[in-house]
Design a protein that fits this description.
alpha/beta, five-stranded mixed beta sheet, three-stranded mixed beta sheet, 8 strands, 49% helix, globular
């Protein structure tokens, strides 16, 4: 019997920032579980219909019509999750105002030696010329400060490819909170910190 080769270390932006939120032995366990799921090619995104509904309301200016309907049409096993997410999504939608939905681009970035996929869910273009590249945080637990900092930094780092001229935004959907870059953050320090974390991630993955 041939042993299954260990897959090359890799993370999506979501997985990498979830890793940063772990502490102690939980970091190693998180990476091991992630590697197992990639090896078995398992995984399912239950939030696809929520994102599709939010994008439809943004695209057509329908003020939450699609979001409000999706709770009743989603698979019953996800109805509780959607019931918890939709109110915050509607609050966010109301805060956005007139805008145009824009498609963003995915970028495979290198953080140290670790490939990380930078993938905002969508972009917004406003009548006054402002542009935003948006990632949604949909977890029950609020995003930790380290995860917020890393998400916004890595999106900013590759914004010329993702959505030129845009500002990165992280929306904590359940709590209706919008996070934007902290002007006081030192990009050089953030970069050194992320490089170290990426090296540790890759080492555990390959162990």
């Amino acid at each position: 019997m041939t042993d299954t080769p260990t897959p090359t270390p890799y993370a999506t932006l979501l997985a990498f920032t979830r890793y940063l939120a772990q502490t102690g032995p939980a970091k190693a366990n998180f990476v091991s579980d992630l590697r197992k799921r990639r090896t078995s090619r398992s995984g399912f995104n239950p939030d696809g219909r929520l994102l599709k509904a939010l994008k439809a309301d943004l695209r057509f200016g329908t003020a939450g019509t699609h979001l409000s309907a999706v709770v009743d049409t989603v698979d019953p096993r996800w109805r509780g999750r959607y019931s918890a997410l939709v109110p915050g999504a509607l609050e966010y939608l109301a805060s956005v105002g007139p805008c145009q939905l824009v498609r963003t681009h995915e970028v495979l970035a290198m953080v140290g030696g670790l490939p990380v996929k930078i993938n905002p869910q969508f972009g917004l273009s406003y009548p006054d010329g402002r542009k935003e590249a948006v990632r949604l945080h949909l977890d029950e637990v609020p995003p930790q400060p380290d995860a917020i900092l890393a998400t916004l930094h890595l999106m900013s780092r590759h914004m010329d490819q993702v959505f030129p001229g845009a500002t990165p935004v992280l929306v904590d959907v359940r709590r209706g909170q919008i996070h934007r870059p902290d002007p006081a953050a030192r990009p050089d320090r953030v970069e050194r910190w992320l490089t170290g974390e990426a090296a540790a991630f890759a080492a555990v993955w390959s162990a």
